Amino acid sequence: MPSTFRLAARRSIQSALVGVLLSGLSATASTLSQPAPGPEANNLHYADVVRATAGFDELILWEGLPHPVSETDAFSRELATRKTFRIGDQNFYAVALPLKDEEKTAISSAVLNHIENFKLWSGYKFCGGFHADYAVEWRAKGATLAQALVCFSCAEAEFRVGDRVEEVDQSDVGVKQFRTLLLPHRQQRPAFRHGDASTSSPAEKMIVPKVESSAPTPITPRELPKMEVLAPPVEPPATNRK
Asked: Could you tell me if residue 129 is inside a domain?
């Protein structure tokens, strides 16, 4: 009897464990089958970015320096010889890229009107860390309202409103759209040199047509304003070189 009892108990426990396992697998499958939630679900405050940019009258596109890890030599040369400034910990050329009105509209719309271009941040990418290839900045009467930094190396984006910063991934659709809209405007970042002690970044490898536009107009980077509802301002970007 004891032996029979132990066998029955063992079978009961095994049956219960199988049930739990199947339940877990079912729940996992159900979760994976669901569409990925939008950025708002990850405390992104995407709506805050849209709200903060309401009434903007100026859109500026900044070009990032070479990647400090994958293009080390080029990054060091540019930082030492070009006029630059920083947004957070990212370096940009201090001369804004020229844009036609229709280009400004398309770039702004891709960020503010298409939440499907973004998805939840999936974690750190082992590609040298986030590096902003471009930054989109919205202003009203000369004051910065919000910024969106775009990284093609790890397909991420970073939203900045006041001192609030949120990182997200670009969706597959978003990556294609941002590459199409932004890469043709590359003007100041040097081409990868094979003599460099580094390798080119994914953004470097994509050949895009040159966009003819008006001559670059110097625009002075400004301090982020105080956002009464959202957050206080961050420190103003510092100009690194002459």
From this structure: yes
Per run of 10 residues, the mean pLDDT along the chain (length 242 residues) is 46 47 38 36 70 96 94 95 96 97 97 94 85 97 97 94 92 97 95 50 41 45 42 47 49
Structure tokens at 140: 């009203």
Domains held by the chain: number: 2
Regarding beta strands 118-119 and 134-140, do their DSSP bridges make them parallel or antiparallel, or are they unpaired? unpaired
Determine the structural domain holding residue 17 and report its residue range: 1-34
Question: How many Cα atoms sit within 13 Å of 208 on the Cβ side?
Answer: 20
Strand spans (E) along 76-229: 84-87, 90-93, 118-119, 134-140, 143-151, 156-161, 164-170
Please state whether the predicted TM-score (pTM) of the whole model is above 0.85: no
What does the buried/exposed string (b/e) look like for 66-90 if buried means 16 or more CB atoms within 10 Å of the residue's CB? bbbebbbebbebbeeebebbebbeb
